[in-house]
TrEMBL record:
Acyl-CoA dehydrogenase/oxidase C-terminal domain segment(s): 295-445
Family stated for the protein in its record: Belongs to the acyl-CoA dehydrogenase family.
Basic and acidic residues bias spans: 23-33
Protein name: Putative acyl-CoA dehydrogenase
Upper taxonomic lineage: Bacteria, Bacillati, Actinomycetota, Thermoleophilia, Thermoleophilales
Natural source organism: Thermoleophilum album
Length: 554
């Protein structure tokens, strides 16, 4: 006879169990059998599995980099790279201000996986390729490498981007360029150099002219910096570009990070890119060299900012691609109510919308990168401002929807989707948040009208191929004319103006270069009267199956 203990501690008789009944009970209690979960996504080649990226690389003049991109794609999609990214995110950087004896050392300690990720980026040319190669398509090839590696870790791409972008600014000072450019462009993590930025202050933000940091002449051609910076990106860099006031105004300076007056106050506790150390710093007589003309710091530093804005676009487009692949992989293997998720029309609508958004961001980004190869200054400047605003604005929305495709599994850290979601907003904030970027477009329209005309000329190349795009272009021309006549408050309408410009640019590229199913869905979902307000509301008639198959071929 069996016994059973009650909640009051007494016992009562229970019916005996036969061996077969006991075995069945054990089977019911075995909860560790895993069913209806997708297999691991990795390993996969994130380059060869991306038709839109491969086609854009060839179209924009970087076919010569195919082998390097295939190799990078294999590593980016490997289990090893994923594990390093997860470890670097989990083991956040630590600031050590003093050694055991009380000496100030201001050292940032990063996990070894961080250095593995950054080393791979540097040694594959993601910082120096265009300046070292100096061949057609070099900026496109570098953009594609950046696109692939940001899908592994967006954090390490910050020092990569700043190092890449510093070269045009340094070239205004031949002596500094001669010393530092070979180190910044070297594909050598140990013997090369990294460049960081320290621009904004606690009272200034985007209004850098409100900065209070001062530069005092020493007398030997160098300067001393006194002040603070609210954000200093990647303090372990070898050199930094910064802004400080002289008697003639805001000026750009370069200083070396081993200067004893360069003090790290604290590391920022950020929403995302948590593997990346960002610091608040102080200058206590830091010795610096002037870059560019005195009083023209903004003019000098904008040479750097334009390139980092390009990288904001690349990073956001890469993040969209990473989220799309995770969502598609999950939906193809997860079953609900007797069918795969990907077979349900509601999910097909969401996945197809995610896919066209990702492809539009990808091809627009690589088209802008080609403008940097061709020295097409009017288009480059204007398109960078427009597309930086739009692509970076779309990334957080895209990440949230991709995460939701995984349901509760996507909300769990192990999926990687929370990291993707947390990292998504940074590119919309860095180098000018939404309003700053939109107002920069308005400024460019009035001061550099050749940029607007070059941009519209690119959009007009698709005229006649899709009636919805034709109507959008006509409406855009009318809107711009009303702005020019002063009939609209330009600042109030700034975001609407930039959005319409960006959609025209993306639609034109898709109509000319993407498969008909993708171009039709984009125009239907973004330009027609049936367009929705969230992702996953594409109108009827869209060929979702073809779009999904193209996005990530089975």
């Amino acid at each position: 006879m069996g016994t059973e203990t009650t909640t009051l501690g007494t016992t009562r008789a229970s019916a005996p169990q036969a061996p077969a009944e006991r075995a069945a009970g054990r089977a019911l209690r075995d909860t560790h059998e895993v069913t209806n979960q997708p297999p691991p996504l990795r390993p996969y080649n994130s380059y060869s599995a991306d038709p839109a990226l491969r086609e854009a690389v060839a179209r924009e003049g970087a076919s010569w980099a195919q082998a390097a991109l295939e190799e990078c794609g294999a590593l980016a999609g490997s289990v090893e790279a994923w594990e390093h990214a997860e470890r670097a995110e989990r083991n956040e950087p630590r600031l050590v201000t003093h050694d055991r004896y009380g000496h100030r050392i201001d050292r940032v300690e990063c996990d070894p996986s961080w250095h593995w990720l950054l080393r791979e980026a540097i040694e594959r040319g993601m910082a120096g390729m265009p300046w070292r190669e100096q061949r057609p398509g070099a900026h496109v090839a570098r953009a594609a490498l950046f696109f692939l590696w940001t899908q592994v870790s967006s954090g390490v791409m910050c020092p990569v981007s700043m190092t890449y972008a510093a070269v045009p600014a340094l070239r205004v000072e031949p002596q500094l360029a001669e010393r530092w450019v070979p180190l910044l462009t070297a594909c050598d993590y140990e013997r090369g150099a990294l460049c960081g930025m320290a621009m904004t202050e606690k009272q200034g933000g985007s209004d850098v002219r409100a900065n209070t940091t001062r530069a005092l002449p020493v007398g030997d051609g160098s300067w001393e910096l006194w002040g603070h910076k609210w954000f200093c990106s990647y303090p372990p860099c070898d050199i930094f570009l910064t802004l400080a006031h002289t008697e003639r105004g805001l000026t750009c300076f370069l200083f070396e990070s081993d200067d004893p007056g360069f003090r790290l106050v604290r590391l920022k506790d950020k929403l995302g890119t948590r593997s990346l150390p960002s610091a608040e710093v102080e200058y206590w007589g830091v010795r610096a060299q002037m870059v560019g003309a005195e009083g023209e710091g903004v003019k000098t530093i904008i040479r750097m900012v334009n390139h980092t804005r390009l990288d904001c676009m690349i990073g956001s487009a890469g993040g969209m691609r990473a989220g799309l692949v995770e969502a598609l992989h999950h939906a193809r293997h997860r079953r609900t109510f007797g069918r795969r998720l990907v077979d349900w029309p509601a999910m097909q609508n969401v996945l197809a919308d995610l896919a066209i958004e990702s492809e539009a961001a990808t091809i627009a980004t690589l088209r802008v990168a080609r403008a940097y190869d061709e020295e097409d200054a009017p288009l480059r400047r204007f398109a960078t401002a427009v597309m930086k605003y739009w692509i970076c604005k779309r990334a957080p929305i895209h990440a949230a929807e991709a995460l939701e495709c995984l349901g509760g599994n996507g909300y769990v850290e192990e999926s990687g989707m929370p990291r993707l979601y947390r990292d998504a907003p940074i590119n919309s904030i860095w180098e000018g948040s939404g309003n700053v970027a939109a107002l920069d477009v308005l400024r460019a329209m009035s001061k550099e009208p050749a940029g607007l005309e070059a941009f519209l000329e690119e959009c007009e190349r698709a005229r006649g191929a899709d009636q919805r795009l034709d109507r959008h272009l006509a409406g855009l021309r009318g809107h711009l004319a009303r702005l020019a006549r002063g009939e609209l408050d330009a600042q109030w309408a700034a975001r609407r103006t930039v959005e319409d410009l960006a959609l025209a640019f993306q639609a034109s590229l898709l109509v000319r270069h993407a498969p008909a199913a993708v171009a039709d869905a984009f125009c239907a979902g973004r330009l027609s009267d049936e367009r929705g307000r969230v992702l996953g509301v594409l109108p009827a008639g869209v060929d979702a199956a073809a779009i999904i198959e193209r996005a990530y071929p089975t």
